[in-house]
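Could you help me review a protein record that somebody else here produced? What it holds is a sequence and that sequence's fold in token form. I need someone to confirm that the token line plausibly describes how this chain folds. Take the sequence as given and treat only the tokens as open to question. This is what I was given:
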Amino acid sequence: MIVWLNGTFGAGKTTTAGELVEVVPDARIFDAEQVGYMLYHVEGLPKVRNFQEWTPWRALVVQTAFRLLDYVGGVLVIPQTVLIEEYWTEIRAGLEKEGIPLRHVVLHTDQDTLTRRIETDTIETGARQWRLDHLADYRDALPWLTREAEVVDTTGVAPARVAQIIAEGSGG
């Protein structure tokens, strides 16, 4: 099974993923961004704003998840923002084709909390402005995200509790 944690940059996906693997048996994190970083080293790919624009990224994420689950079993927790509906549809369809059960969860919080989290983040300080600049992209994607995913409001909720809420819905 895959639990895909979606949401805007700074919503707490990585922190929640770390908590989730502590409470869901046989769960491990798969960082799909690493697939994108791998592709950045391939010469001749078109220049893009975001590695998700590369069709191979989406296909490789699906295939890597499939191969990992086939190899180790259990639950993959993927903390990855996907805000383009077409890309999500392609990923979801690929996972369905491989027969992988998928739980798509959007971590959501109010604008003030999100801005405060980003501005006070001591880990990803170099990406602070970039994350703030992409809040509008998240707002624009929210209508389709709410149709395609379970939305978990993280406003005022500790990451460990958010993970517990998700785990309870995953049979964990």
